[in-house]
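Researcher: Re-running this chain for the archive, since the previous output was lost when a drive failed. Same request as before.
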Amino acid sequence: MIRIIQSNLTYFYIICILPMLISCKYDNDLTISPAVEVRYTEGKAQLYRNGNPYFIKGASGIDNLEKVSAYGGNSIRTWSVHNAGEILDKAEALGLTVTLGLEIGRPYWGEDFKYWNILEVNKKIEELKPFIEKYKNHPALLMWGVGNEVSLKGGSRYLIYYTINRIAKMIKKTDPNHPVMTAINVKTIGRGKYLMPDVDILGYNGFGLIKHFFEDNKNYKNKGWGRAYIFSEWGVPGHWEVKDTAWGAPYELSTKQKINFLQQYWELMNQDTTSFLGSYAFYWGNKFEITDTWFSQFSTEGENSETVQYIQSLWKGEAFHSNLPEIFNISFNDRPGQSNQYLAADSLYFAFPITDFDDLSALKFKWEIRPEEAKFYELDDYQHNMSYLMEADSASTLKFRTPKNEGPYRIYVYISDDSGNYTSHNLPFYVVNQ
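Model: Regenerated structure tokens:
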């Protein structure tokens, strides 16, 4: 009888208990080994995707994805879930991953949104959950990006950090298989690391601040964020970080100067082998911000800027080479290198680029004159090209008539080759009524 009971118990264990233990082990494995995760080994952070180390060589933007892949990149970053399914599918087809943005703050949550209103915050968090459910199993998904520089709008930075962490906690509960990142625009995080314990990766939007980042964060481990981070946007110094004219128009750097900064920033970022997980170059597309060329890696026609050619060389670890001229400045009537250019209203002038090429005949030219975009953020209004002022706007030397109305303007020159590459330069000027 005892043997029969023991035999029955053994049978019961095999049939009922053992499958439960196997199921528990399987569930634990899923939890322990998500599709994408940050692992720490002896204090060093490393991003893993499908069990393999993954370092981000990414582009911020949703255009020209074929070129991200072809030029040696492996990931893109978005700022919202607009057309997310289409973007994720295209990225997967090209072998790219996506940091998928969840837009909070302006404009998704409205400039008048109050983060102290708990009921409204709860409602917004619930509105985000269906997007997590919809895309959490997509094979191209790398991580979730909660907001972008949200503290620029909405009030108290720490209250916003607390809200971001609530969203991160919701995401982790809904999708435990992908990390959560949020992007900020400040040098150090301070108390934020205590307010955002559920955020896995901090994204720094770094332009001119990159050169200060490592100096300001010598005690990064102890007094800063202390965990994994990326540069969620990196690029040339912004229009808020350069010299202005007497009337407040920022001077855009020459292409050569931009490439020098990109080289410097790339070396600085990649010197950190402890917490740095990669970066997203800004902006992979065409974006009008003060000018059409400040951050844009591509022209409106889709041509490659020299900066995107340089980023390609960084991603692939190759030497950079360009067949385009270096444009040092634009001259008005043989007045090269003069700052604070004042021109007479309704008067004829000639403009030509000062370059290191003696023969420009094999290259294509395009000129533009636009009113200065001093308040584009507030107005969301991008002024048109005043083509009626120009004669032969595709010649190497431009003949043009200045506007009749006094005020700030900017002249642009674009020089292209036959291989789909271009370089450019622009110069602000002020029209004065005589």
